[in-house]
Design brief:
With 254 residues, this protein is mainly α. It is 68% helix and 3% strand. It has a two-stranded antiparallel sheet. A hairpin with a 5-residue loop joins strand 1 (69-72) and strand 2.
Length: 254
């Protein structure tokens, strides 16, 4: 019988269902189970983990809420190992940062470290259809916005450019972290209305940097791609910080 996961005395005490859920995850890894593999039935789990039916059921509900198992009813039903989608993983991780009061600087500090290296690694390695996808994305903000609603949409679309690049990362961890930061920044921009008032310089700089970056990626010039992305991040950080201060000042004055 696999041991139920325990924690040190310095860590918060976990409820028994949570401990069992952790033990089931450990067992799945130890057994080498993959997404789609069937888990043992309830009776087997009761014996295997030495826990009451109610505890096992609650542990399975926890795992299903985490997106790690999927339960199907009817013929051929049961509980199956489930791979957490990228979107769900970002949403779950976003919950952790919900009350952290992140700033523009917090996000851009990390973006400035990671995104230039991603750009350099992708230079000369992107298929033409992805390069064209990036160009079509840029076309969505080829001119300044005419109103605040369009300004908001352009901000979100310009960040999507970076999400597209993140999806192409050969390092899945690097790609996920960058994609997650893009989502945080997009949510922050909309929630705090950092697109208001419109900033022509921010639009122009972002548009020009991204067009130049696509050319460097197509040409396979890693050093140029790294330099363009570095300048893009530094410029966007400065201008977005100005937007953040503008919003804060407007809030205080109101």
């Amino acid at each position: 019988m696999p041991p139920v996961t325990t924690r040190s005395n310095t860590e918060p005490r976990l409820s028994r269902p949570v401990q069992v859920a952790e033990s089931i995850k450990d067992w799945v890894v130890a057994e080498g189970l993959k997404a789609g593999d069937r888990l043992p039935g309830e009776a087997d789990l009761i014996v295997r983990f030495g826990m009451a039916k109610g505890t096992i059921r609650e542990a399975m509900r926890i795992l299903e809420a985490q997106g790690l198992i999927k339960t199907r009813t009817g013929p051929g039903g049961g509980s199956f190992v489930h791979e957490v989608s990228r979107e769900r993983a970002k949403a779950l991780l976003g919950n952790y940062f919900f009350f952290k009061n992140l700033t523009i600087g917090d996000i851009y500090q990390l973006r400035l470290t990671l995104e230039p290296e991603l750009a350099a690694s992708l230079a000369g390695n992107l298929p033409e259809d992805v390069l064209q996808l990036l160009e079509r994305n840029i076309a969505q903000y080829s001119r300044p916005a005419r109103d605040l609603e369009e300004e908001r949409a352009q901000h979100v679309a310009s960040l999507r450019f970076h999400a597209i690049l993140a999806e192409q990362a050969r390092n899945p961890l690097l790609g996920f972290v960058i994609d997650f930061m893009v989502k945080l920044l997009s949510d922050l921009t909309v929630y705090r209305r950092l697109y208001s008032p419109p900033n022509i310089e921010l639009w122009q700089q972002g548009h020009d940097h991204q067009k130049a970056l696509v050319k460097a990626l197509r040409d396979g010039d890693a050093d140029c791609a790294r330099a363009i992305m570095t300048d893009h991040m530094e410029t966007a950080w400065k201008l977005m910080r100005q937007q953040e201060v503008e919003v804060q000042n407007r809030f205080i004055s109101e």
